[in-house]
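Work package 3, deliverable 3.1, input record:
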Amino acid sequence: MVKPPHAVVRCFAAIALLLAASSVCAEGDGASAKLLRSTSDHTKFKVLQQDFASGPEVTRACLTCHTEAAKQLRLTQHWRWEYLNPDGRRLGKQNVINNFCTSVASNYAYCTTCHIGYGWRDASFDFNVDENVDCLVCHDTTGNYRKAPGFAGQVVTKDTEFPPGSGNLVKGVKLRPIAQEVAKTSRDTCGACHFYGGGGDGVKHGDLDSSLASPDRDLDVHMDALGNNFTCATCHMTQGHQVPGSRYAPTAVDRGSARLRGKHYKTNPTTCQACHGQTPHKPAVAKLNDHTDRIACQTCHVPAYARGGVATKTSWDWSTAGMMTADRKPMVRKDAKGRVVYTAAKGTFGLAENVIPEYVWFNGKVTYTLLGDRVEKGPLPTRISHFEGSADDGASMIWPVKVFRGKQAYDPVNKTLAVLHMAGTDDTAFWANFNWEKAVAVGMASVGAPFSGTVDFVETESMWPITHMVAPAKKALGCADCHAARGRLDKVSGVYIPGRPGDHAAWLELIGAALVVLALAGAAIHGVARLLASRRRKG
Amino acid sequence: MASRACWHHGGGKGDRVSRVYIFKRFERFWHWAQAALIIALLVTGFEVHGSYRLAGWERAATLHTQAAWALIGLWVFAIFWHFTTGEWRQYIPTTERLDAMVTYYVSGIFTDAPHPFRKTRLSKHNPLQRLAYLLVKVLINPLVWASGLAYLYYNELVAAGIAGPGGLSLGVIALVHTGMAFLMLAFLIGHVYLATAGHTPLAHVKAMITGWEDLEEAPADDAAAAPRESSSAQGATP
Amino acid sequence: MTNRMLHLVAISALGLGLQALDAQAAGSDWKRGRVYYQRVCTECHTAKAGGAIAPNGRTMAEWTAYLNADKHAKGKEPLKKYVSREYRASVKATNKAAEKYLEVPEDQLFEDIKAFMLKGAKDGDSPASCS
């Protein structure tokens, strides 16, 4: 009787075949690669073989097959720009005031350039219209889909002068080829918005900028275009368009093990631990595994951010905005590297590359200062957003963060942060007329908040988790980066770090040193006395 | 029976000095290996502690851990050896002639007074040594050992609920370990200095290398063949 | 080559190039082209030839003419030499892009690079300033 091949053998054979096939297809001719990528060739769909005049027209076409897609999207934070914090407060872009461009409210037509929808021009936007969901901004593969600022997220399909009369031409986007080439999301599509948060490349996050579109291994060991080539969704494992891993709902501590297929998980799949588990280090450096209970992976494995050649903003002082040159034109200043560090429209910026993060205990809770929360000028800056946590709450890890320091407008009488009307072609927008009182009055009115008529500036601080730009293991932090005087974790309290003199018990150091000195002195004195005595006897 | 004649002076060399086999091979190996390991542990340990920079923290920590395991291994053998040979009795403390030893180190040693203690195979350590070594063995060593292992396996202790927030902290473990390191260093300094206090500065060191100690006024019989009674040996010196 | 001739070549190439672009859009992988451009072309240009060349430094017509002319280093050698399998094999030890794309057919890779350059050209669909 002939035995059937052992299951393992069959399995290996299958894997080998698959590997062979995939390597041939991935690197081989484009045609077969394309064939195996999807069961649908969108160029063959009749509904896509038309010249679309607007974004919603494309969406309507998409929805003829993907009937439930818009409904899925309408549930997301990407669509609603709103997040209900566990503490009951309403967050999300729609509600928060940050210390970059401050707030979406009253600036919709510009801010919603990055909304995954069409036409969010003001607070009256209808979130229930399916065709206003923008499919292409996430599913474009051509890299040619673009939404220009000022159009409330609408895609411009014909060359248009904007603002009218400015002579500035916004090029129309040809939607047909884009619609016919749609596929899964990529670093390019996610990055089209997330690389440019805060109003420019790398401005806000520092660990997300255009250098990650096609990074090398040193910049990010996972997204390495020639290696693992992860897309954003590889970690932000999305199902039914619900993207996990928002910073509004951070997972500071993940005690889970590496995930197995077939098992069901309810926790955040984006964490490092979701793949690497709790003991990711090899036996030769097993001691490192003893760190994973208290130190976020990112602390050592993201040694610096803004590492891809794109500077990130580190500070923003709005109070200096509005300066004009001698010939009454808005002033612009650049630093030695040609980077803009001052504009009349926005004030003074700090910029930096290869920034060493700050480190804090973080338990996943973030507290915010929102509109209406009491803001007082004081010795400490107002915390726009702050990571909570401590060494002994049993739920915190040491995390790397970007602390963004600003100075921004507030109402010193009502003691609240100000909503600014920055962008627009009307004469109250700050960027048009450089008048703070007018801009704040319109901004506050747009959200129905009282305004005293006085504008002052208050120092603020916001925190951003650092989690991307993961360096290869060899370029991660070494022991001595923290186990030293004035090391990376110098300011992190509540934990004993061997080698950090600040953790020494002063009394023990004193007694110990005294003991050693006494022993040395005793030996020296006794020895010299013996020597002298011996000489005298001889002499 | 005064016997100072041949000490230090070289006169009458050989005639009144006998050689006694005091330290057996394992004992010598144990001593020197332990010396090297303890010095290595002190040097690397205080670097890990943050007292200075020498090998680099990572190397210091690695070497420290390796040396610690080696020393633990050595100690296991040494403990076995002490119990099977009965050598552990060498560390039973005694107050007998303790004052004489103190007097000797305080004054006698300067006036070339005779050493109040005579080494024998059954009693290698003078009363002061017995006390000091006992202190090392029952206080410093166990605490260094226990705190060191707790340091090394802190995570396991936390997992077991023994250490962690609200319990035994790494800071306390490190405190004990560091305290013992200071005591060990002080002991080492005293020990190294007193090693020069033999009848010649290198006599004790030589004995610890060869195993043979030069003893003056030895009884006629072969020391190795017939070990003397410690009490009679001690009684021999005034 | 005189300016006039270059101009003529450019214009005729433009027509050809644009048509080719539409026809090949489906088959070419501009992202692979981007990686090759950044890691092979630009790396060498930065190290040896005085700096990176941004795709948006030229128009689509100019790039098409350049690519069709197949001349590198002022005509001393064919441009395609640097896309050839032989070239990739010769630098694969030190260049990961060359190593990874070693087996990609030369024409395919050339089309990929071309797609990236034309797309990022000054008048392309999405001008690319960075190398």
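Residues 8-25 of chain C have pLDDT under 50 and may be disordered.
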